[in-house]
Automatic annotation (TrEMBL):
Pfam families: SHOCT
InterPro entries: SHOCT
Name by which UniProt lists this protein: SHOCT domain-containing protein
Residues covered by the SHOCT domain: 125-152
Domain of life: Bacteria
Length: 154
């Protein structure tokens, strides 16, 4: 399970893994994927003196209805429970931090991708510098126009 950022061994032969934008419950021959963006509620409980710790979360699955007969449909998915032992408390805390910090990581990534406002000023300054080179005869009109279009993304 090296491909996962965090792997938490849980009871009943399940491992809860965190990677990218999802949690994955890995069983012997199968896995179930839970997008973190679809988690409506998340609970983390540390182990007690005589009890295991637990991670539970509820997934938004309104579109995943299962017909159970007699015209009755129920939502699949719903609440997920994962119990872990005291030895894995650090990994459980890491999963908790991973999920609860997801929105702030997404916001940081979006902010990093946004174009800084000083970029606009530097493009304008660069075009002004190119215009000066044109006026001095260092650049041709075609070279100036081509570079200007490139800088403006036209």
């Amino acid at each position: 399970m090296d491909e996962y950022e965090i792997s938490l061994p849980c009871t009943l032969g399940v491992t809860l893994c965190a990677t990218g934008d999802k949690l994955i419950a890995v069983k012997k021959k199968s896995q179930e994927v839970f997008p973190i963006s679809k988690i409506q509620s998340f609970k983390f409980a540390e182990p007690g003196f005589l009890s295991n710790g637990m991670i539970s979360f509820k997934i938004a699955v309104s579109s995943d209805l299962v017909n159970i007969g007699f015209g009755v449909n129920v939502a699949s998915g719903g609440e997920q429970y994962f119990c872990y032992t005291k030895e894995n408390l650090d990994k459980a805390r890491a999963i908790n931090d991973y999920v609860t910090g997801y929105e702030s990581r997404q916001a940081s990534a979006s902010a990093a991708q946004a174009v800084p406002s000083n970029t606009v000023v530097s493009v304008v300054d660069e075009i002004r510098g190119l215009k000066q080179l044109l006026d001095e005869g260092i650049l041709t009109e075609a070279e100036f126009t081509a570079k200007k279009k490139q800088l403006l993304g036209i």
